[in-house]
Amino acid sequence: MENARTGDTGDEFEGCNFLTFLVLKGGLFFFILYVVWIYFDSNFELGPRLVSKNSSLRPYFLQKCLGLRSPFVPTVWAFNPHVQTLLSAVVCPVTGPRFQREYLELKDGGVVALDWTTFEEKTLNDHRSVVIFVCGAVTTDNAVARVCHGAWRRGFRPVVFRQRGHSDIPLTTPRLQSFGDPVDFREALEYIRATNPGSDLTAVSLSTGCGVLISYLGEYGSSTYLTAAACISPIYCAETFYSSQAISNLYRWILLLRQKALLLSHVSCLQNVDSLDGPSALRTESLVEFEEMVFSQTNGIGTMEDYWEQNEPMREIDEVAVPLLCISSKDDPLVPTESIPTELFQTYPHFFLALTERGGHCGFFEGFQPESRAEKLAFEFLRAAQRLTWPPRPTRMTY
């Protein structure tokens, strides 16, 4: 009996030790978490900094967009900008969307595609406003699925604009869409508008796809058919982006590899371009040279000076007539901070820049289960801009 009582006492002692260990471990964890929070609170701007002109739209969007006011702390294991950038390519929703592809023949005989998004839920689409997602050269299928899923969750009906020759789109003319040429996008938007009468149209894009979207907003001004647009990690100056030595060789190599794969997939069609030297283009190690050898030649542009004059996204920026939100990070490995034109956002009333300390390129992931703050903020902004155009409800008269 004495041995039994001794054993019970030992078990109780071990239980107390284990409980004390758990309490100390938990306390240490929360203490470290508190120290980390204090460090970032004192050394970084935890929320996105809104850069814009002091117009009446600024307080409106600050009020309507929670993502502009709440703290942004990146996922604890993804503070590194390269990890954030990698996440943007691989994170996708558990339940992916289904796409119904629609091919659209353009005036010059070229073909683009519209991928209309649907989900498992039996939800009527009639009340959903259409948001067009403009894909770029490096946009992955995971990113497309994630953005479309986020748009659907927030009440939008997403459609993906696929450029000619991209994503298994047949190249029917010996021409590839250049970096900032919005002509194909214009024809696609006219079709979407005609087939969705009465729907508010908005647009969102990532990375290199922003070149087409920003160019479109500037070139067509007040006749864009769009209510608002949002660009995540846009390339503000394409010429600088292609020639900059500040960008890691790895990222330059990935983009060049994607461009070469595009050329290889359409050799039979592009061989009809007399001025195109395909073998030399495939051997080049320079993004600038590839752009000159392939995109400049297939579009019939003689010099790179003329090419950039026609393709720089910001070339007609003063003509933009709808609210545009750009979301950028100071640690973006592809877009150096000095290339972000903050003065521009402080000059024009329709331009808004959400600038964060961290986020990488198209990342901005937060939470233990990573979710992009930038994508949530983009749809908040588009929804708030739509409310600006809605007529006010009539006031009931009382007697």
Automatic annotation (TrEMBL):
Origin: domain of life: Eukaryota
Organism: Branchiostoma lanceolatum (Common lancelet)
Family under the similarity heading: Belongs to the AB hydrolase superfamily. AB hydrolase 4 family.
Keywords: Membrane, Transmembrane, Transmembrane helix
Transmembrane segments: 18-40
Keyword Nucleus attributed: no
One GO molecular-function entry: short-chain carboxylesterase activity
Catalytic center residues: S207 (charge relay system), D332 (charge relay system), H361 (charge relay system)
SUPFAM superfamilies: alpha/beta-Hydrolases
Name of the molecule in the record: ABHD15 protein
Gene3D superfamilies: alpha/beta hydrolase
Serine aminopeptidase S33 domain sequence ranges: 126-365
